[in-house]
Design brief:
Elements (H helix, E strand, L loop, with lengths): L1 E3 L11 H15 L3 H15 L1 E8 L2 E8 L2 H28 L6 H25 L1 H13 L5 E5 L5 H9 L3 E5 L5 E2 L1 H14 L2 H9 L4 H4 L1 E2 L5 H13 L2 E4 L5 H6 L1 H6 L2 E5 L5 H11 L3 E4 L22 H9 L6 E4 L9 E5 L4
Parallel strand pairs: 4-5, 4-9, 5-8, 6-7, 9-10
Antiparallel strand pairs: 1-3, 2-3, 10-12, 11-12
Bound molecules: S-adenosylmethionine (SAM).
The site of S-adenosylmethionine has 17 residues, from loops.
Amino acid sequence: MIIVGDGDDWKNDIDPILASVIQKRKHAKQNRDFALADAFRDEIGKRFGLAIEDSFVDGSLTSVYRNISEKEAEEKSDRHEKSIVFQLNQRQRQLSKRRPLISAEELATIARARKRLNSKCNSHSKKQKARFEGFSNWLMEHFNSVSHVLDVAGGQGSLCWHFVMKHNVKCTVVDPVSIRLSRQKTQNILQLVKETDAQNSVGLVKDTGILVENFLSCKSSASEEEKQIACNYFASRGGDQVRSLFNAEFQKKHLDLWKSVDLVVGLHPDQATDAIVDLSLESGTPFACVPCCVFPTLYSHRLLRDGTAVRSLEQLIQYLMEKSPDIKCEIVKTIPPPCNTVLYFNPET
Ligand SMILES: C[S@@+](CC[C@H](N)C(=O)[O-])C[C@H]1O[C@@H](n2cnc3c(N)ncnc32)[C@H](O)[C@@H]1O
């Protein structure tokens, strides 16, 4: 059996339990709860003998469900059975000895399962880190002579790092969260400072009175002085931040900053997504945004032109595109899926 898609077209044609697990997995993916999505993937494999591949079909990310080979399915269900027997035995032993409901062994099993899931999530998050390089390279190719980028919802500043350190472009992050230089980034800067004798520019920033604690926080094994050097060097190259929500109020309050930027970007900008598109279009400022989380409950007012409520990433993309015919859309392969559709507005093209 081969099923393509996450169930909207064919959910009435298959086992309703399978349809419901597929729907739950879809929602877990939309909410970026990848551990839960992986748990549903395992369940679909064990209970229904289906393997899942997330791949591109007709240009959009689609889950393809295929039969696992007989042997593989048998082995999987054997393992599943054994684990159920193990759990039942444990519970019987507990009850007969009148011990507390969760034993040390059970706790250890749970801890191992969690560790396995966490390591899966960590490897997922490592892959996802490629988005900063992929997106910044794509932006540099598509927007000419950018000199100052506003990175809305820039989080801990990894995209900003790529603009400043790799592309020599000034970048200001707007996010309530403070940007951070990781241990690796701090070490990279210190190495660069050493190699290029950049103490002069670092000294200049110190003279302007920017304090590390007001500006960037570092987590690193470097000494306090070295951290200060790394932060100041980053600032001297044009890394900056405003710790604030991005909205119309922000735009009014920081009008000079808003006028000075020539590109507004948002990578997985969550609740700032609409504001990036609306405020940039309103003032004719070029923007590029990679939407990710939908928050269908929080934004239940988002409706497509045909009146459909926005509940999936595909619908969010359509909803944003419907704001203006000037918005273009591209799936960028160098940004890891599933959130790798760039919506952009570039009056020059
Ligand atoms: C999923 S994270 C993405 C962070 C970063 N762009 C990345 O790709 O790692 C979403 C970020 O959006 C920020 N955020 C949410 N609403 C915001 C708003 N209205 N204005 C600015 N930042 C916002 C959060 O603080 C969080 O750092």
